[in-house]
Amino acid sequence: MFPRHSASRASRTCSRDLLRTTVHHHTQVNTQPFYGGAKSLTLQRRGNSTKCLTPASVLNSPIHGKNVNNRSRQWKGKRLSSTNAAPHADRKDEIYELIDNINRNEAEMARLMDELDLLDDYHGALNYDGPDPEDVFTPLVGHRNQEALEAKVQSARQQFGDYVPEGYLSDIELQLYTRLYGEPIAKEEEALDVEEDDDGQEPDRLYREDGEGGWEEVEHEVVDEEDDIPVAYDMEAPAEETATMRRAREVAEELGGELMLERSRAEADTQPSIRNHPWTLEARFGRSAISLPYNTVSGPISAILSNYSNKHIYESAHELFGGRKLPHSTTTLPPKAQMPQLPIPLRAGQRFMTEMEANSFLAVLFPGMYASALSILAEVRKRLGTKWIRDLITKEGGPHVLDVGGGGAGVLAWRDIIRAEWAAMNPEHPKSAPVPVGKSTVLTGSDALQARASIILEDTTFLPRLPNYVHVRDRPTLDDDTEPQPRKHYDIIIAPHNLLGISEDFMRKEHVENLWSLLNPNGGVLVLFEKGRQKGFEAVAGARDMILNRYISSSGATNYETLTESQIESRYMEKETGMIVAPCTNHEVCPMYRIPGEVKGRRDYCHFKQKYYRPDFLQRITGAKDRNDEDVQFSYIAVQRGVDLREKEGIVQGPVATDVAFAGYEHFNPEASQSEVQEPNTSEPASAAAGKVKTFHTLQLPRAIYPPMKRKGHVILDLCTPAGQIERWTVPRSFSKQAFKDARKSQWGDLWALGAKTRLARNIKIGSKDGEGKKERLARRAAAKAAMNEEGGDIDEQNEIDRLDKADLDDALNPGREKEKGQTVPRWKKKAGKRRARQAVKDDAERRVSGLTEQL
Predict the structure, then answer these.
(1) pLDDT tens-place string over residues 474-502
(2) Which stretches are tagged as biased composition: Acidic residues (predicted)?
(3) Distance CA 405, CA 445 (A)
(4) Which of 15, 290, 363, 704 has the fewest CB atoms found within 10 Å of its own CB?
């Protein structure tokens, strides 16, 4: 047995008789833990996250179960007597000093026991469930001070609300409670009626007929009622079964199924169906709607906006972003709105921004940017795998993130990705504990926006402008052979809505080059996205085309030719290792961007959407009454510098990957032999291509560019293949039941892995340079219609009469006459007769109207 520490001996210096007398006279014993008990000293002991408190912190902490808030300060100037003539009031200070000594010794004892790992085995030595000494002595000697009295009343209010148990508060506490909150409602504890069985009562017996007119006893096993009590209890009471629910349950049991209630269906929707193919689940794009987290996004923004008038924010947002529907913000209106495709008027990097403009930036642009960035980063994390993000988290100093244009929205989205991955890595990690999110840098040109972003973001560096590394050498040259100064590199660069606001194409390319130079050359990821309209797609596709041509090397394209005269000595520049992460699964020319630059008449373009719930402040600005969700549309590109999974993991793209994907990965097993993998109905070309694919990866699958078209018995998918072509694949039920079911459940943006039965090239409308736009087409049609109206309507009638044969003109003028037996009337003659009859009725009506007009 371990020797007793001096601290435990000191804790027994209190007089036992005094304690016994005090407890005897105390009418209501509190069952709260001891003020200095072990529960207050150790936090999460069994979760391997023990946190011992010092005696000073125990003394300074409030009583367990009593939260002292700022409201108690309102009553500091009004002193109230604690009790009326308490018998031990003259020893009040000594008693409370004794209580403090007991708590101090108890804290020291708990700390020593925790260091010796004796807290779990000898927890009885501490006062876990005993009364709080301060609550015991308060009715006798009065409260410690005015703050303690107010704390007791506020604790009762927080714990019980309006229904306070009878006898819980003393007279002075009841007076203060009534003054602060009104008269409490007494709540009497319900007595439990326990029926005791008589000892002389005979046990229950079970009888049955013996077939001879008598009864015989049947032996049975007596089951106690306590055995029927379940071990675990439901937190919510089950729904009462109605007649309809009972009938539905019976039908479900007959069919071998299970009845799913509304609550169960909502829980099931949050998890992927187990009946879907594993490759289908892995190839899915973002599904559920995004709700902005209150603690990190919507809550801080609401607190910032609460200092300003809602009307002023409302008017400023409408003035900046084009009206009530905010067409010039991240919101994407349908094409029928015929709104001009203009860039967002506010940029995070602009040098001057008023207070209301900064408020409008947070209220209108922040939610859409956050939802778009979170959807894209989730897809990037899925494409690159778990190892990539966990290596970033565990690296020294953590990942370095740069937000260019989002004002901090991209950083918040990235931190949510980190938190989710950290929770998967450490399941026992408390949610409120900090997470290593790395270092963050945000571009904020104006002081107003920087002041607001600094409230939302912690441990963040703010830059007024980006460093320009495009015209700075990165290696020794003939003029200067010294080593260049080290540059600042980032692992993740998120650049929302940067390109569309730059009017000149060469300036867009220079901006993309500068962002590329800021990337970590050993695996940095650059994310660019714009609004999901034609001009936004053209800006992103132009950046993709430039990066492929100048920086990312592929098979057969490891360098590019510079056409400037100042670089004759280095005419051919070597490309770097890199790859397109998302959304493309090919490194060819974009099939929807065959003609570079802006074109007229573009109908088909690559874009995606993400649903999110608008916060309250954005709901007020839009004036929406019926729904609070919105689909933000965007076009994006994510590229990685310095790493190419095509070489590292043997990923195959191009026509070979397309043929294998057309055959389908439904029965593909990377660990099985090729003979086991092939299906009986696989064609010979697909079988030959499948021999070149030894692994499954989402980067070698086609991607749906539009929602699937569901028909009876088959599904039509419009896909962008790994070969860089737009094709239409048909998946009938006869091809595969699993593929047919998954195809009907697929959505816009998903990758497709289960193959198809037929494929053909899909005609897309990408416009042309010299084509006519929508305004020109409408003007041309209006002019043609006006010219036809000026010529009059007599020309068509005269031409129709001339086409009729003179011999049959009488028949056409008399369509109602009887035809001879066996005579067949031609169809053209019937139509001509009906037309002439309708014209005659119309002329007669016009004559009558004109006659009435002359009479008037």
Answers:
(1) 666 666 667 667 778 899 999 999 999 88
(2) 190-201
(3) 10
(4) 15
